[in-house]
UniProtKB/TrEMBL annotation:
Residues 9-135 form the Pyridoxamine 5'-phosphate oxidase N-terminal domain. The lineage of its organism: Eukaryota, Fungi, Dikarya, Ascomycota, Pezizomycotina. Coiled coil: none annotated. This is Pyridoxamine 5'-phosphate oxidase N-terminal domain-containing protein. It comes from the Eukaryota.
Amino acid sequence: MGVYYETIPESLRPWILDQKMLWVATAPLSPDGHINISPKGGPYFGIISPTKFWFMDLTGSGVETHAHLHEPGNARICVMFMAFEGAPRIIRLWGRGRPIENGTEEYEKFVKENHVTTIPGSRSIILLDVHQVASSCGFSVPFYDFKGYRTRLNEHFEKKEKAFLEGKEGESMDKYWAYKSQLSVDGLPGMKRGYEYAKKNGIKPLDKFKGPLANGLLNRKSAAKRVLTL
């Protein structure tokens, strides 16, 4: 049976913080846009208060979460946790999210005040204003044994950062973000830092999707159609 709350109850806090991964769901406002679900692994999340939750967004080839949260009038987000051992349980946090991007004063202030250890490849802190929480049974979720966190992503960006600091300009994170974090699959601007660097330096975005949906063509056509009918 589902139980709902307006805030994160203190009774759920230890269980949430003990989880090894979470899932993040967002979507664009356009009815033609694509829903996104991203798995997040590692101890890179926390609870600040009953209505404030954060997780660190690590660099990857996609940028859907950023794009949806940056979209004017959007910011909708749902974070989900599941039990893979012990008693069955699913927890969902609904709210509005905001990316605090790496390289900004706000990012540096947040990690310092909240004692967050940042790592190479950290793209942002996603800060949630939580307005609903749900606990449900999870009776059909299977058991899995946790073997350990994958270290490949951290090692990859540690090497990339080291190479850049040694003078290899091509290993710049700004160039990487400009290429891969510039636009969403629907053509929405993604990471602000990557988008701005790309426009300033003429860097084309990574091709995403194939066919008529390639590079957000469908979403841009739908957006234009809605403007013409207003």
